[in-house]
Amino acid sequence: MLNIAAIMGRLTVDPELCQTPNNVPVTSFTVAVARSFVRQGQERETDFINVVAWRKTAEFVCRYFKKGSMIAVNGSIQTRKYQDRDGNNRTAFEIVADNVHFCENKSSGPVVDAPKTPLVDFEDVPGDLPF
């Protein structure tokens, strides 16, 4: 069976790191994803997709992303059932993040500091390579 989801969009709020009772890091956030098509005479619609990230992925998201950051998420779709405050049965759909990726450079968005060491060009190695 196959359950793969990949989305790219902007965070709607600053992600907050939480801990489960067993001290497992977790965060939930919403990604605003613009639809790839526009109906004639209408504006582009946006979907707001809920994402949950666990452990190191959750810590990474909370450390390096904030509201408005462009993010790419890949993972799987998960459903869970719960009762709301009025006792009604509800189903939540969300993406469980396996990986998250930056989609902006430093000048266009709030991402990580630049490396402190200068980048070095590759040098040619004489002779044949063993592979």
Folded structure, characterized:
- The structure is a single chain.
- The protein is mostly beta strands and 131 residues long.
- The chain has one helix at residues 55-64, and strands at 5-11, 18-19, 25-34, 46-54, 70-83, 89-102.
- The chain has a five-stranded mixed barrel.
- The protein starts with a strand and ends in a 29-residue tail after the last strand.
Q: The biggest beta sheet, please? A: 5 strands, mixed, barrel
Q: What is the number of E strands?
A: 6
- Strand order within the widest beta sheet: 1-3-4-6-5
End-to-end CA span? 36 Å
Radius of gyration: 20 Å
Q: What's the order of the H and E elements?
A: EEEEHEE
Poorly predicted parts: 110-119
The overall pLDDT, averaged over residues, is 86
Tell the overall outline. Answer: globular
Number of helices: 1
Helix fraction, binned, reads: under 10%
Sum this structure up briefly.
The protein is mainly beta and 131 residues long. Helix content is 8%, strand content 43%.
